[in-house]
Specification:
44% of the residues are buried. The longest helix is centred in the N-terminal third of the chain and has 18 residues. By secondary structure, the chain is α+β, with helices and mostly antiparallel strands. It contains 19 helices and 18 strands. Helix 3 runs antiparallel to helix 5. The protein is globular, with a radius of gyration of 23 Å. It has a 7-stranded mixed sheet with strand order 17-13-12-6-5-4-18. It has a 4-stranded antiparallel sheet with strand order 10-11-7-16. The chain has one domain: Alpha-Beta Complex (2-enoyl-CoA Hydratase, Chain A, domain 1).
């Protein structure tokens, strides 16, 4: 997996012999002890307190952009401790690149002394974010909170808080996060610094994000899902607007499901309106995850188990909280070991991880279409988050052949492991992934993404699949690019 900053202690990693890479990483640990581990349980309690009561903590600071050098250093040290105590992406980055947050702390704190403005400090935080970057571990743009983009909307639900906050803190924390975002975004200096920063994926309507088609011979159906960052509903009142397309799917021999470039977003649209129509009986999909084997990671794991309860084999969130409509389909269970079929777990990561947890999702058919044709799934390295989760589900169900490149990953843990921590002085929000997701073969989902069955370079996947279909029919391959005709997408006439 290519990371944006493949550095070892701040240097570029090129083609370095293995023994030099090992030396660059520093002492190799044989146990799960990391610097500062003994304090991380206290950090967990501090983090919960500051997350829930952060605005009160900062209420004496009218301008969050006016900071002393010592306050900047306090925030950075706090952030690095959180990353090392809780972060599961950090485990992989340590193995691959030798990145260990608290061992790198001195170099980051030293850079503070040379800063001349808040803008410099903000960009230093961005550098830290990129250096330890995971797919979900990153510094959030405050406008994500203020405008309620999907990445931040989930913050207001019980699901995002399940691992770190108690029920009595939920309503307060929701309110304070919004207040923090408003304070930050209204600050003139902050707005000047942030105005050119990326704001995350753009929300699209179902009509903008979803495209359907059929091949010229009328035998193959095509469904493209560009994003699950969706706003509003389709013309027929549904989340995806593909009901009529699916109703007519049995008119075709093959379905091509195109997820290339999909950055994720919400799970609910495909979980409620696509999967239930592709299955004919009750099916189960398992996702295996693990928290860190640190005092803090153990607290995250236990807090998550305590916050969830099982009733008749179905997972429910705390009844005092707003319920996620999908929560009732899931069962969350502690496991002693990974399944024996997972033959490729990374043994170097294992000492840093606690016992696995299984998230079992029960899928029930809904207006099943009884499609008997073959389904090809097109994927690439941009498929991440909930689109990667969909890929994992379809592979687990055994109903697709995946063509293209392995996904970017980080979908197996879903949203259960995401924690958003408030930096104590500025109120900036740093998101940390606290759960390590396992692929079906046991490898790291964050590192490798979901594997493909047929590797193909970008841009040729669709034509490759269409020629595979022709070959299965005994037809000659077509050398020119296929032009797809529009298929059923709009609601049927009454």
């Amino acid at each position: 997996m290519n990371k944006p900053h493949q550095r070892c202690r701040g240097r570029i990693l090129l083609l370095i012999p293995l023994f030099l890479l090992t030396a660059c990483k520093g002492p190799q640990r044989t146990d799960a002890s990391w610097p500062g581990q003994g304090d991380s349980a206290a950090v967990f309690e501090t983090m919960k307190s500051r997350t829930a009561h952060g605005a009160t903590y900062r209420s004496l600071r009218p301008d969050p952009t006016v900071l002393s050098k010592e306050e900047m250093k306090e925030e950075i040290a706090y952030l690095l401790m959180i990353l090392e105590s809780f972060g599961t992406d950090v485990v992989v980055n340590n193995r691959l690149y030798g990145f260990v947050p608290t061992l790198d702390q001195e170099q980051w704190l030293h850079r503070v002394d040379a800063l001349e403005s808040f803008a410099d400090y903000y960009h230093l935080l961005l550098d830290i974010s990129k250096h330890y970057e995971g797919l979900r571990t990153r510094l959030l743009h405050p406008e994500e909170a203020l405008l309620g983009l999907p990445e931040f909307k989930t913050l207001q639900g019980a699901k995002e808080y399940a691992a770190t906050l108690k029920a009595t803190q939920i309503s307060l924390a929701q309110t304070e996060y919004q207040k923090d975002a408003q304070v930050l975004w209204n600050n003139t200096q902050m707005k000047k610094v942030l105005q050119e920063e990326p704001k995350g994926p753009r929300n699209q309507t179902p009509e903008e994000a979803i495209h359907t088609g059929v091949t010229e011979d009328g035998k193959t159906a095509y469904l493209q899902l560009e994003t699950f960052y969706l706003k509003g509903r389709a013309a027929d009142g549904s989340l995806l607007g593909i009901g009529n397309f699916l109703d007519h799917l049995n008119n075709y021999e093959t379905l091509i499901l195109d997820l290339r470039g999909n950055p994720g977003g919400q799970m609910r649209p495909w979980r409620e309106e696509l999967l239930p129509r592709l299955i004919e009986k009750t099916r189960f999909v398992d996702c295996y995850v693990a928290a860190r084997d640190t005092p803090a990671g153990k607290r995250v794991r236990q807090d998550l188990l305590d916050r969830l309860q099982s009733e008749q084999g179905r997972l429910l969130y705390d009844k005092t909280l707003n319920q996620d409509p999908m929560a009732v389909s899931k069962r969350f269970e502690s496991q002693e070991h990974l399944p024996s079929l997972m033959g490729s777990p990374n043994l170097q990561d294992a000492p840093y991880l606690g016992p696995p947890l299984r998230i079992r999702d029960t899928l029930e058919p809904k207006k099943p279409i009884h499609f008997k044709g073959k389904i090809y799934l097109l994927a690439d390295v941009q498929v991440t988050g909930s689109s990667d989760t969909l890929t994992h589900y379809l592979k687990s169900l055994g109903i697709v052949t995946v063509v293209g490149k392995p996904s970017k990953g980080d979908g197996v843990a879903q949203d259960f492991g995401i924690h958003r921590m408030v930096l104590p002085h500025t109120g900036l929000i740093f998101q940390v992934q606290t759960l390590y997701g396992y692929n079906l073969d046991g490898s790291s989902n964050y590192e490798r993404g979901n594997a493909v069955d047929d590797f193909q370079e970008n841009g040729v996947e669709l034509d490759h699949v269409l020629n595979l279909i022709r070959k299965e029919r005994g037809e000659a391959p077509k050398k020119t690019k296929e032009r797809l005709k529009e298929a059923w997408h709009q609601p049927a006439n009454p």
